[in-house]
Amino acid sequence: MRKTIIINIMIAILTTGSLKAENIKALVIVPNNYGANFQCFYEMYEQLGWDIATASVTQVVQPCPVYASILGCPPLTVDLLIPDIANVTEYDCVMIMSSTQHAGNPCIELINSQETLDLLSTAVNQGLIVWATCSGIRVLAAADVLQGINIQGPSSYNGEFIAAGANIVGTKIPPVIDGNIITTMRGQYYMVQNVYAIITAMQNMSN
Fold first, then answer.
1. Tens digit of pLDDT for each residue in 69-116?
2. pTM (2 decimals)?
3. What is the CATH number of domain 2-202?
4. Where do the structural domains in the chain lie, given as residue ranges?
5. Are 42 and 35 contacting, i.e. CB atoms less than 8 angstroms apart?
């Protein structure tokens, strides 16, 4: 009940402000052992009227084993397999969700997937908005798209971010926008700011 009330308040804010959040086609990449924030993100974007397609390297991805039963997060059957996506430019933005650290090496199957890395490289180079949260930012580092980019991310992966040429400007701060790349943490706390960051980045890229 509390989650539904919060989401409804956020939707009211987002649909009455100066920045409109409707009519966005988003490709949401979901790693195995996906984190608890996915449920809130997906429900909010769906209610905002976004056209959402989920994708991964396997047809079914498992939720975080620690939070799955508590939050009712089920195994997720994705809409698309990443190797089958022929044209990522059909989407307005690509979003990389996080994977829990409670179940091994977060997002490792995405990092080890050349198709995923190539898709993200194409998305960035073609000017799509590419948004990543928490451990999902590791995948951007592996895709070699962070050279000279200002980011935030979990400090445990700073070595990977520095090796990828990123400039780390903080952690657990509001979403960081650098061109068409957005990095973020504390997903539930910054839910509204994350949507505004995507809309702002789209407006900036279209100017």
1. 676 788 999 999 999 999 999 999 999 999 987 778 999 999 999 999
2. 0.90
3. 3.40.50.880
4. 2-202
5. no
